[in-house]
Every structure is written in C-alpha cells, then in structure tokens.
Amino acid sequence: MVKAFILLVFVAIGVFVADQVLKNVFVEGFRQYTQCIDLILVFNKGVAFSMFAFLAEWLKWIQLALLAAVVGYALWLKQKCYLIPVGIMVGAGLSNVADRFIYGGVVDYVYWHCGFNFAVFNMADVMIDIAVLWLFILNFKPKMCKS
Q1: From the candidates 19, 38, 99, 125, which is the catalytic residue?
Q2: Among 19, 38, 99, 108, which one carries the catalytic annotation?
Q3: Domain membership flag for residue 146
Q4: What is the largest CA-CA distance in the chain?
Q5: How much is the pTM?
Q6: Is 127 a member of any domain?
Q7: What distances in angstroms separate CA 89 from CA 96, 97, 134, one per listed residue?
Q8: Would you place residue 147 in the very low, low, confident or very high pLDDT band (cuts 50, 70, 90)?
Q9: How many domains does the chain have?
Q10: CA-CA distance, 13 to 98, in Å (whole number)?
Q11: How does strand 37-44 pair with strand 32-33?
C-alpha cells in the first residue's frame, strides 16, 4: 500500500505543479479574447459559481479538511484503483487552496461565453470534475476496480 500511496502523492504533485504554472501565466498578465472563450484573470473568493464566498477565511480550512478526509477514505478502502483519481483531486484541490493562501481567492481564467455565459474556471476545476466522474464510475462499476 505504501507504493500505491506514493503514486497518489506523485499524481497530486504533478497536477498541482501543472496548475500552478498555468495560473502563473495569467497572474503575470497573459490575456486572450476570442468569439467563444476569453482567457482572463479572476480571483474567485468562493467555490463553484462563487458559492460560499461568505465563508471567507474559513473556506480554505474547510477545503483542506475535506481533502484530508478524501485521502483518508481512499486509504481506508485499500483499493489501489481509487488512488489515481484521488491524487488528481487532491493535487487540483490543493492548488486551489494554495491560491486562497497566496492571492486571497482562486485564480480562474477560462471564461466560456459561446451561446451562453458560463462561469470562469481553471484547469484544477476541470481536473476535479474528471476525478469525481472517475470515482463515480468506480463506485457504480466495482468490477473495474480489481484491487
């Protein structure tokens, strides 16, 4: 199980670093405007669609506790197939939490407005969505998880 946990850590570090590097591009000033997608800089004080912004400083601590609970639950399950999606989720989640400590809000930069206005989001948000979908599939298709 130690090797599996190391895999989780390496996946988390990879996602964290990739997301922070990309966010830094936008913090340093990159912007691009197109017909459907604008690449802009927004500091989101809440979570999805700015929900829970009223929690202010508490939000980052709540998110850290939730991430720790997810890791604990994945290790408690003792099934290796959960560790990669959990690593993705943890790396992306920690990247967003790091933004809260550094900038006071999450660095968001992709604004979809083709046909309708959507929220501004970042790579970490997409990675969290992928990890949640992956975990959802593993929970409802247990045969996919062989360990």
Answers
A1: 125
A2: 108
A3: no
A4: 48
A5: 0.91
A6: yes
A7: 11, 12, 10
A8: low
A9: 1
A10: 13
A11: antiparallel
Q: Say how far apart CA 129 and CA 56 lie, in whole Å.
A: 23
Whole-number average pLDDT of the chain: 90
Question: Is residue 38 annotated as a catalytic residue, yes or no?
Answer: no
Assigned domain for 133 exists? yes
Instruction: Encode pLDDT of 16-70 as tens digits.
Output: 999 999 999 999 999 999 999 999 999 988 776 666 666 778 888 999 999 999 9
Per the annotation, the verdict on 125 as an active-site residue is yes
Determine the Cα–Cα distance for residues 111 and 41; give it in Å rounded to an integer. 9
- Identify residue 138 by its one-letter amino acid code: L
145 in any annotated domain: no
Q: What is the full DSSP assignment across the chain?
A: -HHHHHHHHHHHHHHHHHHHHHHHHHHTT--EE-SSEEEEEEEESSSGGGTTGGGTTHHHHHHHHHHHHHHHHHHHHT-GGGHHHHHHHHHHHHHHHHHHHHHSSEEEEEEE-SSS---EE-HHHHHHHHHHHHHHHHHH-GGG---
Give the domain extent around 114.
Answer: 2-139
Distance between CA atoms of residues 135 and 54, nearest Å: 29
Name the token pair of 136: 């959802």
